[in-house]
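Pilot study result, target chain (137 residues):
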Amino acid sequence: MNFYANTVLRLLTGVTFFMHGRFKLLWGYTNLSEWLDGQGFPMATFFAHVLPWIELLGGIIMIIGIGTRYLAFVFSLILLIALFKVKLTTGFISNTATGYEFDLLLLVVCLQVAVTSSNSLKQVWRISRKGGESLHV
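Predicted structure:
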């Protein structure tokens, strides 16, 4: 996958997780904790305090382009847990709840970024010399 396509995937993934983390923070720790507890998550209060910040700060760092492979892997784990713990029972597309189609698509994008992304920040600062050689600044 070329650099530009991977950059678009990385940026959209970062924005998506940033917005989801922001939503969770605005929704409140108590509401998120109660929801997680209702879904059967152990240590719901702990995860209600940690998950929004992973998504919010991880999204910002993903947008900047630092550690994109690691973040994409962490985001993939979050999505896998969401898929198997919450979403699969709702169906691919559901009339009564959000189906798992978006989570599955975002999981594939995260895996793509994790596998194909190099140090994106380094690539942004790459300068080309005459003759096609490149240097990393």
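One observation from the pilot: The first helix runs from residue 3 to 27. A full batch analysis is planned for the follow-on phase.
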